[in-house]
Amino acid sequence: MGGRSLQSHQGAAVASVTIGLGALLVALGLGGYFGSKRVSKTALIPAFFGLPILGLGVAAALCESCRSGSLYGATALAILGFLGSARGLPGAWNLMAGRPVPRPAAAIAQSVMAALCLAYTVLAVWTFLTAP
Questions:
Q1: Count of C-beta atoms within a 10 Å radius of residue 30
Q2: Dist. CA 75–CA 56, nearest whole Å
Q3: Which residues of 4-24 are buried (b: 16+ CB within 10 A; e: fewer)?
C-alpha cells in the first residue's frame, strides 16, 4: 500500500500461499458437498470462494505486474469469506464443549473456512504493510 510493491520474493511467497488457500477452500467445499451425499448445495460455498482465490493466486504467481492487484483481490475475498463463515464459530465452540449443534458438519466447515480466511488475511495484510 502507499507506493509499496509486492514484486519481491515475499510477494511470490504470498502468491503460493494464496494458491494453497484456494485449493484448501475448494477441497473443503467439495468434501462438504459430497460428504453430505450432495444434499446441501450450500456446502459448496467454500469452493465458490476458493476458485477465484486460486485463480488470483495463479495470476499473481505467473504475472509479476499483476501480483499486487491479484493479491489485494484475494485478500478482499478472504475478508468476505471470513465475515460470511464466522457465524459457524459458536457452533464449533459448542461442539468442543460437548453441547449439541443442529448441523455439526456445517459448523465445522464454516469454522475451518473462517480460520483459513482469517489466517490468510493476517498474513497478507502483514506482507502488504512490510513490503519494501
A1: 15
A2: 10
A3: eebeeeebeebbebbbebbeb
The alpha carbon dihedral of 110, 43, 75, 16 has a sign of: positive
What distance in Å separates the CA atoms of residue 98 and residue 118, rounded to the nearest whole number? 25
Which residue is associated with the grid cell 457452533? Answer: 91
Alpha carbons 92 and 101: distance in angstroms, whole number: 8
Average pLDDT of the chain is 91
**Tens digit of each residue's pLDDT (9 = 90 or more) over 34-80:** 988 888 899 999 999 999 999 999 999 999 899 999 999 999 999 99
Structural domain boundaries of the chain? 9-130
- What pTM does this model have? 0.88
pLDDT band at 11 (very low <50, low <70, confident <90, very high): confident
